[in-house]
Amino acid sequence: MLRALGNHNYRLWATADLISVTGTWMQVLGLNWVVMDRTGSAASVGLSVLLSTLPSLLLGPWAGALADRFKPQRIIVLGESLHLVIALLLALMVFTHVPLSAIYGLTVVSGLIGTFEGPALGRFAGQVVPRKDLGNALALNSIISSTGRVLGMSLAGVLAAATGAALLFVFNSATFVAVIVTILVMRKGELHELAVSTPERAGVRAGLAYLRRQRVLVLLFTLGFVLSSLGRNYQVTMAAMTEGPLGTGAAGYGMLSSIFAVGTVIGGIFAARARELTIPLLLGAAAVTSVLQAASGLIPGVLGFAALILPIAAGAVLIDTTKTTLLQLGCADDMRGRVLAVEGAIAAAAGATGAPLLGWLCDELGPQPALLMAGLTTLIVTGIAATVLRKPSGSKARDAEPETATPELAAAAA
Predict the structure, then answer these.
(1) CATH no., domain 202-414
(2) Residue 269 belongs to what H/E stretch?
(3) Contact criterion met (CB below 8 Å) for 126 and 328
């Protein structure tokens, strides 16, 4: 389960990641608190979130092309340095009560930097472990992310009440120093370098041309979008259920959110314990979570709903970890940044479209029919994906170019 931790560089990276994620969630809570405190509007908080994700939707492929062309360490150090400056500027702005429009502006800039840094972070995370340990490392990363989220939000809640929101941004700025120092002190001889793009394979157009020939990767993207948009936006459906059929209000929503967080940790542990993360495992987890989602609105009482929320959250992490592992191992090394950028853009698009759609369904049909409809839809799409992936016996493999086909993806489909 912990085999990735046997790598010295990964131990350093995992520690830095935990510190970074904790700081990020402290800043997220601080920013949301400042916006809500000044405007009293949940829509304004939503606008802040949208502004931070908009660059990923618009510029993701270019960010991936940049990550494939240059060593990721350079991009990460530059990105972390800029994030540090922005965090300190946000602290100063919050402390001096500058207009909210200036804070919104820095939110966009921060999202822009994160867009270009994200694929580089993904490529570098694949260099601190050998290929055979990548799936285990990604599973452990999901546990670290869940732990950092809980720590960050808990610490932010205490500090914001005691010292004010400005200090949260100062604490976050220090976490960027930890990442930069970690990269500088890693053992370079133990890094598993990935090939960078040659000039003829560089750029967005070359990346898109490559992806068009990767049937399995495109199918994973499509399945991921449907599962994320209709099966991951439980913050919407949980709120609708607690305000509606369950009648538990904010207290019930808080309890269900905590249970969901526990489920994500369980899912990460399960993924870390798995010997291999394969396409059948992905499809099986997608089918089970789809059935549970469809049934969750039909189970009476908050305890029954909570009992299904736990495995749904665990399944979501298992799906995401398996999908990301398959995407990274199933593509050419010099295309990995662009593949990761497309995955990030699809995830952002799924959140931007799925949350409003589920909210509309809950308003128009009620939360229980909305859960049933969403679960049946994801189940049908999972069945279609399984059918498409099942090749006729004796057919020629057309999933990848001969020079980029990976044995990991072929084994994962078996």
Answers:
(1) 1.20.1250.20
(2) helix 249-273
(3) yes
Same fold, 1-193 and 202-414: yes
Dist CA 158 CA 173 (whole Å)? 18
The amino acid that residue 91 corresponds to is: A
- Domain 1-193: CATH class, spelled out: mainly alpha
Domain boundaries, the chain: 1-193, 202-414
Dihedral of the CA atoms 86, 191, 141, 328 (nearest 10)? 100
- Contact assessment for residue 188 and residue 376, using Cβ atoms and an 8 Å cutoff: no
Which residue's entry shows tokens 């207290």? Answer: 251
With beta carbons less than 8 A apart as the criterion, state whether 411 and 276 touch: yes
Q: pLDDT tens digit string along 224-253?
A: 999 988 887 776 777 778 878 888 876 777
- CB neighbours of residue 114 within 10 Å: 20
Helix runs in 134-165, H state only:
134-163
| Sequence letter at residue 53 | T
Token readout for 230 is: 């209709």
- For residues 335 and 209, is the Cβ–Cβ distance under 8 A? no
> For residues 331 and 404, is the Cβ–Cβ distance under 8 A?
yes
Summarize pLDDT for 323-373 with one digit per residue, the tens: 988 988 888 888 888 888 888 888 878 877 887 788 888 888 888 898 999
